Amino acid sequence: MADSSDSVSIDMETISLGGKEYLVKTSKGSVSVAVFGDPDKPGLVTYPDLALNHLSCFQGLFFCPEAFSLLLHNFCIYHISPPGHELLQLGADAVSLDEPALSADDLSDQIAEVLNFFGLGAVMCMGVTAGAYILTLFAIKYRHRVIGLILISPVCKAPSWTEWLYNKVMLNVLYYYGMCGLVKELLLKRYFSKEVRGSAQVPESDIVQACIRLLDERQSSNVFKFLEAINGRPDITEGLRKLQCRSLLFVGDNSPFHSEALHMTSKLDRRYSALVEGSIVWIDRYRGAASRHVDSHGVFSDGVRFVQAVDSQSESEKPLESFLHFSRASVTGKHGVEVKADKNSNLLEGGE
């Protein structure tokens, strides 16, 4: 690891799981990295979507005790936040709009410098939409440093005219009015299904209300810079053919990024990649299947329900297992696939 003078480290008061947040200085500017777990274990790098950080983007997964325990059993987790999206404990400063924006290439190069800072070699990567693009670009440029990709609602092409115009509207509103109600509404449409966002008759879900509060903490100029980088992204389709790391893609049937995910899957080497479409159900040992549908980032059309997994060790010698059942899901053409993760193994098993 680099000398301690090159970073700032603090305990994260909002989480009681032993995480620390570092502000790592790179040639492209400082970047926030929240670290959880044993640094001697293999690294899992995450990158969030637009205007989010690791708390607002991944808390639904990592705050589930069994899921978090399963991940920490196998990995040390490095949550990288886009520049200026770090937690308030680090005091995210507003970047001047007159400063040149970092490109998607610059952001991917930052990841390489972060890995160097922590002395990491090859890592697993997990990203959501904009974050998925940055990590995929990183995997293309630094193939020897990525052993696997988990991509949620990913994109790989340059923005379509529709997306480009949509983002331009958001950029203009951010420039003149900051993180106003319209920008938050546009971002919520990117993140959540209509059902979860609520209506005049149905109130917003708790997760949407929490997301709105977190968006209020974002510096609008920092969101502007990240959105500018993503809206100017190049097409990286050709580079996908060179990837030989394992890739697992998730996308919902009604996700605005569904066609992008299908296109991306068609360009990846089928020997090393799989696509999961549809809804996901995690069975709760206390309450049964969760009653609320949470469609996070447009990932699953029928909702994502993260609850607690079954602990079978009390009744038998079997290890603690977490079961994810994809109802109406397809993995490279198969339907009704169940994916089983064994806490005592590094493998993810699948079966019909």
Characterize the structure shown:
Helices cover 32% and strands 23% of the residues. It is of the alpha/beta class and 352 residues long. The strands form four sheets. An eleven-stranded mixed β-sheet has the order 1-2-3-5-4-6-7-8-9-15-16. The protein has a three-stranded antiparallel β-sheet with strand order 14-17-18, covered by helices on one side.
Overall pLDDT confidence: 75
Low-confidence stretches: 1-17, 280-352
Tally the helices: 11
Strand order of the largest sheet: 1-2-3-5-4-6-7-8-9-15-16
Beta-strand content bin: 15-25%
Per DSSP E runs of 2 or more residues, the count of β-strands stands at 18
> What is the H/E string?
EEEEHHEHEHEHHHHHHEHEEEEEEEEEE
Shape: globular
Percent in helix: 25-40%
Question: Cα distance, first to last residue?
Answer: 44 Å
Biggest sheet details:
11 strands, mixed
**Class per helix and strand makeup:** alpha/beta
**If you compute it from the alpha carbons, what radius of gyration comes out, rounded to the nearest whole angstrom?**
19 Å
Keywords, separated by commas or semicolons:
alpha/beta; 3-stranded antiparallel β-sheet; 11 helices; disordered C terminus
Detail the topology: elements first, then pairings:
Blueprint: E1 7-11, E2 20-26, E3 29-36, E4 43-47, H1 54-62, H2 65-74, E5 76-80, H3 104-117, E6 123-128, H4 130-141, E7 146-152, H5 161-177, H6 181-191, H7 194-197, H8 206-216, H9 220-231, H10 237-240, E8 246-251, H11 258-267, E9 273-277, E10 280-281, E11 283-284, E12 288-289, E13 304-305, E14 321-325, E15 330-331, E16 334-335, E17 338-342, E18 348-351
Parallel strand pairs: 4-5, 4-6, 6-7, 7-8, 8-9, 10-13
Antiparallel strand pairs: 1-2, 2-3, 3-5, 9-15, 11-12, 14-17, 15-16, 17-18
Helix pairs in contact: 3-4, 5-9
